[in-house]
Amino acid sequence: MTYIHFIVNPISGNGKHNITEAFLRNSFPASEFKIEIDYTNRKKHAIELTKAAVANNPNYIVACGGDGTINEVASCLIGTTIKLGIIPVGSGNGLASNLNIPRKFEKAIEIIRKGTVSTIDVGKINEHYFFSNTGIGIDSMIIKKYEQSGKRTLIAYVKAALSSSFEFKTQETKLSFDNKEIIANPFLLFISNSNEMGYNMSLTPKASLNDGWLDMIVVPQLSFLEKMTLGYHVLRNTVEKFKKAQHTLIQDLTIEVPTATSLDAQIDGESYTIKTNSIKVSIIKNGLTVITD
């Protein structure tokens, strides 16, 4: 019998999903599956619930939510043999999209019932894990404003991006990787494990979840017209055609911002404040087992 523990974020996707206990129990026959269900009620609650679930050693822990919920659940599974399942009900759903896990609950549930698995790489930024992407450039401000808006819609995201493009101030930053050092003033400093950010947008369309590399995009300080051009390429998924975007494959990276005491970052589409001016980014190859199509 397969033992599955579900962690459900009831407010993902504006809380309009119908992932109830009755729905899940009807979807997983008791003759074949033992299931447990927990519901989150605040940010980071999924971490507590997942740690408690891990102690019971289920076969799968299934995150029912967006990229933030998935991050909280998946981060607790690193170093275990427990497999991650995903039912995507968030607004962006970048990781699920990259894994070809559909938004239709019935199809996502069918994937979980079949139990086919694959391994993916995992990114690490200081003590935090990321599975899709992270960044400390303008994207960190965009996510902060996006969260403050209280609306998880594409329009809210675009509004946050436009206001951030005027407010974001670059800082001198030292990047160390591949035995070399680069001094930059990055408008965008984005590191991706996945080929999609969410909302079908991508800065790294050629990125792979299991190639052993992280894709780094660095864009320097830009003029107003260049910012608008970059925005156009982001919406068109053609950032590789923007001449000032420098793309590098990395496995280890150190970021230092001498004038800062702390740094804002976005990690899988959630806002964080990292209380240091030095960041280490690395990759854990095949660090997570995921149920996928």
Account of the protein in words:
The protein is an alpha+beta fold and 293 residues long. It contains 8 helices and 16 strands. It has 2 domains: 2-115, Probable inorganic polyphosphate/atp-NAD kinase, domain 1 (Rossmann fold, 3-Layer(aba) Sandwich), CATH 3.40.50; 128-284, Tumour Suppressor Smad4 (Sandwich). The chain has helices at residues 21-27, 45-54, 67-75, 94-98, 105-114, 138-149, 154-167, 224-236; strands at residues 2-8, 33-39, 60-65, 83-88, 117-125, 128-130, 133-135, 173-177, 180-184, 186-192, 214-220, 246-250, 252-256, 263-267, 270-274, 278-291. The strands form 3 sheets. It has a 6-stranded antiparallel beta sheet with strand order 6-5-16-13-8-9, with helices on one face. A 6-stranded antiparallel beta sheet has the order 12-11-10-7-14-15, with helices on one face. A 4-stranded parallel beta sheet has the order 2-1-3-4, with helices on both faces. Helix 2 packs parallel to helix 3 (67-75) and helix 6 (138-149) crosses helix 7. The chain starts with a strand and ends with a strand. The model has no long low-confidence stretch (mean pLDDT 93). GO terms for molecular function: ATP binding; kinase activity; metal ion binding. This is DAGKc domain-containing protein. Keywords: ATP-binding, Kinase, Lipid biosynthesis, Lipid metabolism, Magnesium, Metal-binding, Nucleotide-binding, Phospholipid biosynthesis, Phospholipid metabolism, Transferase.
